Amino acid sequence: MQHGVVSSEQLAACDMSRNAVRSKVELRRWQRLHRGVYATFSGPPSRLALLWAAVLSAGPGAMLSHQTAAELARLTDKQSDLVHVTIPGERRVMKTAGIVIHCSLRAGRAQHPARLPPQTRVEETVLDLVDAAATVDDACSWVLRSLQRRATTQAKLAKALAQRRRIRWHRELDQLLTLDAAGLHSILELRYERDVERPHGLPRGERQYRYQRGQHNEYRDVYYKEYRTAVELDGNTYHPPETRSDDTRRDNFAAEDGNVTLRYGPLDIFSLPCATAAQVARVLGRRGFAGEHPCSPGCPVGVQRATLPAKTAMPVRSTAAPRPRRTPQKTSATRTRPPASRAASPRQATAAARAPAPRR
């Protein structure tokens, strides 16, 4: 249940003496992970075993929170190097290497009622990360990511936010969570132009471009007519997939006419504007555009195009008929000379000397 990790208090409750525990550690049957926390095996501990050890080392009421809880709730795909643990505000614990301790007066209400290892609720995890965010964009990205991955709902986040009045970026999050799909869509259009198009030298696409197919008029959020490329900004990315079936059919019809459709959600615009611009630039570049540029030294826009080897011109063979070769004419001055006599070998010279002279 605890992935083979136990605390000294749990061992004492099972009537196991300290000498018995010390003996198992000295014989290397067990291993000590933290002070008062042991692994009842000798091999390397798993990730969950290390998380259990961090929670048990912090004592009663401790729970995983912040980036570590986000990892368990699949709000992020990256493992945190440090393990974040929240304890009740009235308690104090000793510092432990690799563990970050947070104190909260509402730890009891923040803990998830069923998940193990003990961890904060998804809504509390999102708000903890929002409170620790350095910029409003980072704060909004955690909210939008939790909605896109369907870890929670807009109503649950708004209810949890109402209970935490002193949280950082409260006003901005309150506006974000009260927006409907249309309001969020308008923000995405403004941020696309401000953070994606202009800083990276992309051409300005036509907004709400009317595209006629048969007897029906369809509208594209951003359309690059010269390059036959459309960009759709989905403000309702976290809605159920069946509500986006019409968009899928529209994209398929556009592909029949030779148009490319790129779709981006709030997370792509708020948190990954450079990566979004790089992808748009690559698609436009394959259709003739070549004016993009990075917005900063670490921006990926234009990097792939700059690293491509220059194309060398292939030699072109002449199509003219080859000239006939001229054969020199023989003259009296260029007659062939008779071959010179070959010099006799030493063996032939010796045989000639031994031969008898002819009689006279």
Protein model, in words:
The protein has two domains: 134 residues, no CATH class; 122 residues. It starts with a strand and ends in a 6-residue tail after the last helix. The radius of gyration is 39 Å and the shape is extended. The chain has a four-stranded mixed β-sheet with strand order 7-8-9-10, sandwiched between helices. A three-stranded antiparallel β-sheet has the order 1-3-2. The protein is built from 15 helices and ten strands. About 6% of the residues have low confidence. Helix content is 39%, strand content 14%. Strand 7 and strand 8 form a beta hairpin. The longest helix is centred in the middle third of the chain and has 17 residues. Helix 10 crosses helix 13.
The largest β sheet comes out as: 4 strands, mixed
**Mean pLDDT across residues:** 79
**Radius of gyration over all CA atoms, rounded:** 39 Å
The total domain count is: 2
Number of strands: 10
Percent of residues in β-strands: 5-15%
Backbone shape? extended
Distance N terminus to C terminus?
130 Å
Per DSSP, the total helix count is 15
Amount of helix: 25-40%
Element order, helices and strands? EHHEEHEHEEHHHHHHEEEHEHHHH
Class by alpha and beta content = alpha+beta
Side-by-side strand order of the widest sheet: 7-8-9-10
Residue stretches low in confidence (pLDDT < 50, at least 5 long) are 237-243, 306-319
Which oligomeric form is depicted? single chain
